[in-house]
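Async update (no meeting this week)

Hi team, since we skipped the sync, here's where things stand on the single-chain job. The sequence we agreed to prioritize is pasted below, unchanged from the tracker. I ran it this morning and attached the output directly underneath so nobody has to dig for it. Comments welcome in thread, and please keep replies under the output.
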Amino acid sequence: MSFMSENKHIAGNAGEVMLIADCGSTKIHWAIVAGNSTTGEFFTSGVNPVVMPREKIAAIFAEEVAPEVSGCVTEVWFYGAGCKGDAPVSAVTDALRGVFPVADIHVDSDMLGACRAVSAGEEGIVCILGTGANACRFDGERMVANVSPGGYILGDEGSGAWLGKRLAGDYIKGLLPETAAEAFETRFGLDAAGIIGKVYRPGSHDLPPNRFLASLAPFLSANIGEDWARGIVEEGFTQFFKRNVVPLVPAGERRDGMRVHFIGSVAVAFAPLLRKVAEECGFRVGTVTGSPMEGLVRYHGVEC
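Output:
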């Protein structure tokens, strides 16, 4: 859902503007700010400086971002996947400066963006549950603890990729009910060999394995009334709390002493189950939202 109305695809008017970006590996959500109000939003290809060459990042900004913005960009707040550490931050900063040479540029992680979007300046635990998964403890101003997500092979419990991996594995091993397996084949046009090929030998036009696996997760949402689907989701969320959230609370500290906030499509799609599992693990869920952008523009003092 957009936080703006009729002007959501309109670029900024001439004059000084500020850009706010919520960046993932797949897409970037940009908000354009003129004065003290948002004047437009748009989407471009995503970037991840950990796995993407500097030249590619610079090309995306020059070819996809610059044409969307009129006026003089004086400030950019960029929150992105992989934007942690000197080299990745430098790659994004330099690419942005190549397009917006007079702007004050701030590049931080998507996790910090999530914290600023949902915490309202209060201490809490902030989580991302989308294609991937992540969690950190936030003291109201900065992240003070973080459990490495591990990626879709070693971690990302409860994420779309994890849920899709578990679903695909159950299908391959014949563990799904017969009617569910037939429905799976009909919906995706895949058999066991096709799944294995897309995960281990993806073609040039195929999705990356993590995104392919995440694309299977909506099948669980469509069948959430069935015990087998509900069980997969509950297991994923339980593992997410045990392996990513519990370690953020020192021994002896009450788990319900602070709220746990969530951003991401998976969190929204399965919000009732997420709240149930959180309660069983001793936590209280606060905000659950699909996108941090509305919270980010509010954090930066902009009228939504």
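Quick observations from my side:
The longest helix spans residues 227-245.
Residues 119 and 125 are 9 Å apart (CA to CA).
Reply here if anything looks off.
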